[in-house]
């Protein structure tokens, strides 16, 4: 078929009759056309067809014959970018970057007349990372020629001129400066733009599947139609007869060993309750058979022909019923040695404890008690890049897996264990990852791919569809959280009683960690003399839950912060003041179920007081956005605390290698998936080494690069991996200084080896080390090095960071909302978040993390819910039924940073990637309650629930309630 | 997505070509057919090669070819000169109700990028309760002109076409040829209100209303009910009467786009807002 792609005449093989344009373009080498949903909902595959934007995934390929297609890589001639793309690069308009090519294509069709209607014009492009504010600004700048005058009708322009324009507080001055004493451009504290921006906006930066491995087979699975069943027989005769089928795998072909799809530093953190393919299925959609074939079409055809006989077993879907007598037991054969607490009651994890005495007595003796029970829903991570991996054998016969993962080293370790291979015979790496949010701290595809590669000795790829994400990946744990608070009339807490029931679904991946973590900083943030916590995580025959941004905290924080709001209302105390009265202060012990301080938590800094002040002041200032006439208005706030890494250890190796050409190669294990660490890591190196980004090469997320890395989760990219890199760069600089001094002085370098002063005295110039104004060529420096410090590339300094102690970060979110009580519609008029991130190493990026977390929080608060039919079938299994926030749904969040400097983190920095999400939902719920007089106890506070609660409370419009 | 079960893609050029072999389905824009696996379908028969005119204006009213892209209808209704509308006659100036077309399109979850591919007929024939082209046609007493497999033809109100969410009265092999909108309805004053669980999400309720030249009022409820509900009044009903009628209507249903009780309540609220619009416009 002939067509024109990016102004080049192209002749492709005839498309298959049911083929879409997206795959035809990718088969023609245009890997810049991404797949987010493959169903026309997300816009990641947007291209221009004869100049008009279309979703290429739903255009029949044959209809492009003789027509002209323009992709994100062809919006401007040669190496140039379209003005919108330039603006996206300039204004931090992407984080993971997976949606960005499609976003660029759609935006390129807009004109100044569209700027007042961006919500509608851009509703067909979803971004999960940014919260849209920087994209909106980029479009205004790119289309209108400047955010100021070019977009009069643009809501952002209106906001930007409002009194409370979003601003970051000035970051703390950073001590590290270059040897000349001037602030180092591109170093820490600077808003350095993420690397590879020009490639990302064009779609040219490769993600997991943006590579061609010749001869790759396709793996597809057959899912269970039953929520609980025993597999009696599998007949693959007809399936094997499909031309192109290479191998079909069943439970008889996989290792007996059980494992968990969840990955942690210590594999014993999760229950061994999963088999690669099992003869018992415990949720609808669970994979039963894997088909490996030459083409996706053959694999799909064969999957349809696999005959499976099941013996259907009784199933249970409600967590309370699941732990009650008589419930079907999901994992009867497991016990404590498998890390399942009480399998006979379907309880995988339990926490029962407290301190300070009898909580019921303390509550009874309290002047005031308030309480309630809150329920959260399943939330999909909705990373635009689905899960998937490609595996092959390298020239040495070693198993290689290229995966969309946050934890390549942990995947490598578990694959080696499962397949009985030495670790060094397995390599796992991640290219750029298209979003994570915790969902890629799991093994969902790599295990089957690895097995299939070993069985076939051929490359194998398994890429999730969007539907797969909804039926066989994981969701945020739904939790029922009951909170009762006791207090004196002065508002001082006298008792806290918490009961948590978490639904982990059919498997316990992250069940234990999420439950324990959920009941930690959420409760420990308050100084209560008497506290009691009862929590259990139970198996049900629902799709499994897993790690999700916030890791259980957000669910419990919803209960605690909503109950705190009830207390504030009951006593007529300002909710900010109530927190000031009861929240921990620097030096206070942090404890949850025992009287002793958590020994691995240190008070490296404290910024909650500033966060409360900043958020309250912003809310008082307002932003000039008015409520529609007749809508009820209310304000709400909530706080959250999060430790700066996971408990019990997070490990990172890093190295810095000086090449003879003066370039320093940085090797880290952690992955880049929009978290921005690859930017900050380069900034750290720039500041420590005193050299610009043009002389830095960062390599990451590959088990071949360094010895170990726990992975990019628990917000550890800066606080652990960053620390490791900081130490490696410091070590390299010290090493170079010693060597250069040795060369200059003609003596042994050892004399000055250890001194920091000596290290700062020596500059890493482009041609060599500069000592006392004299340049020692790099070849001479390297020649002087000890053999053990030399590797093929050059002079290498390595560090193994083993972090055990944690500090604490804080966030306060505040909103003013308007509610149409007749329909339940909620509009967030003002959204404010104050964050205690320590020293902010990259203000623009950190602002983006806070905005993105707030946007995801708003989605969870108001829109997002994975629905089931109550019998295990997910009914919202594609994006058109699952409400990922669109442009129209996300207001600008004003971001303020506390001025603190942490004693633990590199340059005083703390983590700030998960935590902005946590306080958003309770803040919104509290505002709705104050606006309408009706509190909604089930999250999301969707329009139907708000309407129902308001109707039951007899709420009327027009009332105004303030939080402060 | 690649629909891997499809082994033939056949262009239809004559009515005889529309005879469907086992496993074949007609395809227009294909925006739904290409968005999901189609396990029971083995062939597509392309309607867009039939050469049906997109929009025909006559004394009886507007005839919308089933393969007319939604974008064409919207652009033409807005009086915009685009590559799609340039060869079309401009709409009669007194067809005020054409203003409903872009508002109905906005009620779709699909963005403008889909409208250039998706067709009016495809949207009607997929027959989602939330199908906004059904909302548009129902608002204006649109008639479905259908070609049966045996060569016969029939016409039925678009409001009677849906039999439920995603099911309709078309017989096997029967093809929607056009949607016809009577001129009298096009000369009415019409309005549309909608709501979804997200601001621009898939509709949970769409309520339309119009006042004809003789003062008669027609209110349509779609998206909230599994089949369209049409309420007819000789004049503007009282608020209480309208609310009672909308609340008493049959077919409010629950799915991920909203539970039935909320859909019933917000449909009544939207109907009152529609009434308010109509009173303002007639004042």
From TrEMBL, chain A:
Keywords: Iron, Metal-binding, Molybdenum, Oxidoreductase. Gene3D superfamilies: 3.10.20.30, [2Fe-2S]-binding domain, Aldehyde oxidase/xanthine dehydrogenase, a/b hammerhead, Aldehyde oxidase/xanthine dehydrogenase, molybdopterin binding domain. It comes from the Bacteria. The keyword Transit peptide does not apply. Pfam families: Ald_Xan_dh_C, Fer2, Fer2_2, MoCoBD_1, MoCoBD_2. Belongs to the xanthine dehydrogenase family. This is Xanthine dehydrogenase, molybdenum binding subunit. It comes from Serinibacter arcticus.
TrEMBL record, chain B:
One of its GO terms (molecular function) is FAD binding. Signal peptide: none annotated. PROSITE patterns: FAD_PCMH. It comes from the Bacteria. Coiled coil: none annotated. Transmembrane segments: none annotated. Residues 1-186 form the FAD-binding PCMH-type domain. Gene3D superfamilies: 3.30.465.10. This is Xanthine dehydrogenase, FAD binding subunit. The lineage of its organism: Bacteria, Bacillati, Actinomycetota, Actinomycetes, Micrococcales.
